[in-house]
Amino acid sequence: MAGMADRTTAVVWDRALLDYDMGDHPLNPVRVELTMALARELGVLSRPGVEMITPRPADEADLTRIHRPDYLDAVRLAPSDPFFRGWGLNTEDNPVFDGMHEASARICGASIAAAEAVWHGTATRAVNVSGGLHHAMASRAAGFCVYNDPAVAIARLLDQGAQRVAYVDVDVHHGDGVQAAFYDDPRVLTISLHETPLALFPGTGFADETGGRDAAGTAVNVPLPPGTSDAAWLRAFHAVVPSVLRAFGPEIIFSQCGADAHRLDPLADLSLSVDGQRAAYIAMRALADELCDGRWVAMGGGGYALVEVVPRAWTHLLAVATGAPLDPSVAVPPAWRTFAAERCPRSVVPTVMTDGTEPVVEAWQPGTTPDAVDKAILATRMAVFPLHGLDPHDPRD
Length: 397
What we know:
- This protein is α/β, with parallel strands linked by helices.
- 34% of the residues lie in helices and 10% in strands.
- α6 links the parallel β4 and β5.
- The longest helix is centred in the N-terminal third of the chain and has 20 residues.
């Protein structure tokens, strides 16, 4: 790696990233458009040290590090065949659309650009809010995801010599595609906090999924009960994530920051606020600062409250990545409110960057909070901590 830049941040952006558009579908690219517009209105993108990067699409060599060549052929072919079936394509979750391969490859290219900017030291941190398509498998589209940009970007760094890459996924859904891609690779630690697979797609991400034979402990899953709110979610995060990251010793941290754990999200049942999500971003940045000289690559992900939640959450993410976190009480600019109302006429447009909560970080103590979240924490610690030489019952670990 080259020498680190002085706290600079690469923000990867091109309006062509909005071409990943499945039509009348929950994953509407307007959420990304509104995020970038809100960040721009609040001055986040014009802060000192912010470099805007225009990405190129990932090429065949990049994509086939994760995806099978015949799957790429299917992605190219599917939009021209109205009767196409197979590979997880042309389904309700993953409808085909014109230019699907090119749009998907461009999102992968954006995450590669973010990863390389940090790995080669031209930036300390990088953000691609259009990315985070973590469900795509080697030969199957799934969960609104055609190509798996986090996995493709991580694979690029492995090819360039990375030996310890950590991936932290706070989307409400399990980061199954990234876990599957590296389940047998001891160089990649995948951590996912998500709603229990007993209640939500994709049905994986149990605590006992801990990595393959030669990579034991490198998959970490914290499945949380429906209704988990800020304080309990943050308790779970801090009871698991810092200890495992410290034991692993990453050279770089990737974060998938899906905003769908919010209480207003229509597709899931966790109960975080924007303020709780902001606290998670601050915690991940702090861990990157502590463990790997600040090297942090953040991506978007899920999030289907298109106006009410996602733009505010990811604008907070961009602010945390580019410098000082935004004051939660700051007003949403009137110009953005007008723009959002025009783009999504039936939505409730927020007026402030907060949900009016002050998230409390509760310290985990074994046996003192015998609720469903505490049981989930202990199950994860029991499954994974011994594999890292940690004591699952010691709150200091």
